[in-house]
Design a protein that fits this description.
By secondary structure, the protein is of the alpha+beta class. The chain has helices spanning 57-69, 89-106, 110-114, and strands spanning 7-19, 32-44, 74-75, 116-125, 128-132. It is 26% helix and 31% strand. It is elongated, with a radius of gyration of 17 Å. Pfam families: PTPS.
């Protein structure tokens, strides 16, 4: 029996934004702000033959930064799609996932298209986070 192998890469970043949770029925329904932490994880099975990298961290960090640029220092409730959906950590993690996935798929770096996005976690505080991932259907 041969072992399956893969590598996982993780990058972290943050952004600052204000939001109000609609229908919360508590103090978080009022406008307040956070320094949101974001953790992004990808995985893959093949290293590049020349540099023996799964993916240059720079490519991954740039894709994440591009998505976060539209959220940073904004009132999320006024920023699409959160002008329609609740700007919860759960919805933020899904939004960031989709934005990064689109950027990796369109990347000129072939190894960016070869990795699989595993998860995106968003934290409002260091002690709690919401994680979005898409599981393969069996």
């Amino acid at each position: 029996m041969s072992a399956r192998h893969c590598w996982r890469l993780t990058v972290r970043d943050e952004f600052s934004a204000g939001h109000a949770l609609r229908h919360y029925q508590g103090k978080c329904e009022r406008l307040h702000g956070h320094n949101f932490g974001v953790e992004l994880c990808v995985e893959g099975r093949e290293l590049t033959p020349d540099t023996e990298l799964l993916l240059d961290f720079k490519v991954l960090k740039n894709a994440l930064k591009e998505v976060l640029r539209d959220l940073d220092h904004c009132v999320l409730n006024e920023t699409p799609p959160f002008d329609r959906i609740n700007p919860s950590s759960e919805n933020l993690s899904r939004h960031i996932w989709r934005g990064v996935a689109d950027r990796l798929a369109a990347s000129p770096a072939p190894q960016a298209r070869a990795v699989r996005l595993v998860s995106v976690s968003v934290s409002e505080k260091g002690s709690q986070s919401a994680t979005y991932l898409e599981l393969a259907e069996s």
